[in-house]
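Students often ask why we bother predicting the structure of a whole assembly rather than each chain alone. The short answer is interfaces. A chain on its own may look different once its partners are present, and contacts between molecules only exist in the joint model. In this exercise we take four input lines together and write out one structure for the complete complex. Read the inputs first and try to guess which parts will touch.
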Amino acid sequence: MGIEKVLEYQGRDFLPNLSIDLVIIGYQEGALKCLLLNIADKWVLPGGHIKIEESVDTAVQRILKERTALEKPHFKFLSVFGDSNRNFLAEFKAFFEERGLPWQKDHWLAQRFVTLAYYSLVDIEQLSPKPGEFDEAVDWFSFDELPDMGLDHESIILKARNRLKEDIQREQLTYNLLQEEFTMPQLHRLHETILGEKLDRSRFQKKMLATNQFERLPKLKKETPGSNPYLYRRKN
Amino acid sequence: MGIEKVLEYQGRDFLPNLSIDLVIIGYQEGALKCLLLNIADKWVLPGGHIKIEESVDTAVQRILKERTALEKPHFKFLSVFGDSNRNFLAEFKAFFEERGLPWQKDHWLAQRFVTLAYYSLVDIEQLSPKPGEFDEAVDWFSFDELPDMGLDHESIILKARNRLKEDIQREQLTYNLLQEEFTMPQLHRLHETILGEKLDRSRFQKKMLATNQFERLPKLKKETPGSNPYLYRRKN
DNA sequence: ACAAAAGTGTTGAGGTTACACCCATGG
DNA sequence: CCATGGGTGTAACCTCAACACTTTTGT
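Now the answer. The structure tokens for the assembled complex follow.
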């Protein structure tokens, strides 16, 4: 969708006052990262709207696919953000004016939005994120070094970060952040990163294997000194 | 709001396509119960819409207060129900026609709604639920004997039932279902009811007291044989 | 041979289970 | 004094934290 279309487009095909924001989380170089878009000097979460004839879950899948090009990306509901002053007016006004485009304060994008926030765990290596129609740039940011963020998106991203920490303790979600085949040391370091604390290596391994969710594959051939770790894969 | 107003009213003050549904849960005579409204031969959850100038949480509080007359009722987010075919068309058409009122298929109420479902735990004794504008009757139903329900409200209510079971195991939510002062046997039976299984009486009591969240009050004077139980109250 | 990495074993502390026991109260 | 209900104690069992030990591999 080109910029001309955006201008004339008044959201006719979408549910008004309702948006979707996505916290797309990846894991790279031992750090948790988040995909952000640059718009008018601020960074914001990727997102979109729900088509009239489309279920919310389908919309999330569609928007996710636009960003990740993955066929079946993981996603999980995070929270509703429904403050009465949630609108992008300032951001979009700046964006339009920067480009010398006409801005009306009753533009469709200036309305108040209730947003449904989801988080998605992806394997960065498999990804090819594409810049959207509105964003000048797309980049991954470590959760420890977030840029200046627009609207309330910083609180959304931090909520996702905390939710992940909680969810990982009762659900197996980490598969989505790793390749299909992975080693226990890799999984161990990932859990330590998410939880932000040291985990006993011995206990972690035994706990994971006790779940009986893993299929042990031949050992991985490494170049570094030390024993070669087994590869594992999810059963089924 | 009288029925005439409903007719001319086209939802101008509310966010369109977005509704709130409430699973109001109480505990009475040893059973978990849910508040339902009768509309056109079906029973539905109480609910409402979000005002343009109002946050989602404020809307939930307002709608809850309309139903319960409680000043600060408990509530917790349950889930988004966003199927593309979620509309009340059939129900409202029947409701209007029963009364000989004109019905147009493009009525505001016939649109597709994304609903935000919340559940609320209340002490039935403190309540005075008022019939809403649309409902012919209001009643409490045990979760084991739900009536014929409209739309997807049965799946919402069952989801709330299961969520409660999960949540009770990590959070103290049960206070809201009991009077301010309660005994351990009462709390014990409540947990057994919610979880649907027997819990060891001794262990339950010790676990609860170990949390150190309770203030022990003088014993309750009963009429029945056996030792009198202590009363407890939440600390703070 | 040595250091580093990975896998497994051991021990004790602390929690949980399933009861048993005791006390209070009304009939 | 007995049945009932409520509070507490206890021994067996299980789980888990902490650390030790062993094996594998590159230099």
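Check your guess against this: Strands of chain A lie at 18-28, 31-39, 42-44, 47-48, 76-81, 114-121, 137-142, 182-183, 214-219, 230-234.
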